[in-house]
Specification:
This protein has 125 residues and is mainly alpha-helical. It has two domains: 69 residues, lambda repressor-like DNA-binding domains (434 Repressor (Amino-terminal Domain)), CATH 1.10.260.40; 39 residues, no CATH class. It is built from seven helices and no strands.
Length: 125
């Protein structure tokens, strides 16, 4: 499942809407919506995101969050380490090889570490 799929499923369930009902309202098949929710489809288009936000009557702040989540929801990513030191390429490959075996705690720790470094970098600007 992707973060976007999780968010859409949560919104749908909170509002008591089935996949079939939502799919019909958005002009997509229930299979497509199911694939999005389960992480079997890539990042949705901007048009689709706008239709989802309109369907759920989401205010702009929440829509921005949904769009941000969608941008982080491609289940098959490519990490381009061209021009970076060898250690960066090794790290990206190691993460790709080990990601399925990481515990939720390890994922949270890695995420916190990255967030902390990004925050410090932005603060230094």
């Amino acid at each position: 499942m992707t973060p976007f799929g999780e968010a859409v499923r949560r919104l749908r369930r909170e509002r008591g809407v089935s996949q079939k009902q939502m799919a019909a309202a958005l002009g997509v098949t229930p299979a497509y919506l199911s694939a999005l929710e389960n992480g079997h489809r890539g990042r949705p288009s901007f048009d689709f995101l706008q239709r989802v936000a309109g369907y759920f009557n989401i205010i702009w702040d929440e829509a921005d969050d949904l769009f941000r989540i969608a941008s982080q929801s491609h289940p098959r990513i490519v990490v381009d380490t061209t021009g970076l030191p060898a250690a960066y390429t090794a790290f990206a490959n190691r993460l790709a090889a080990e990601i399925r075996s990481l515990s939720p705690e390890a994922m949270a720790e890695l995420t916190e570490t990255i967030d902390r470094h990004v925050f410090l970098r932005e603060k230094a600007r």
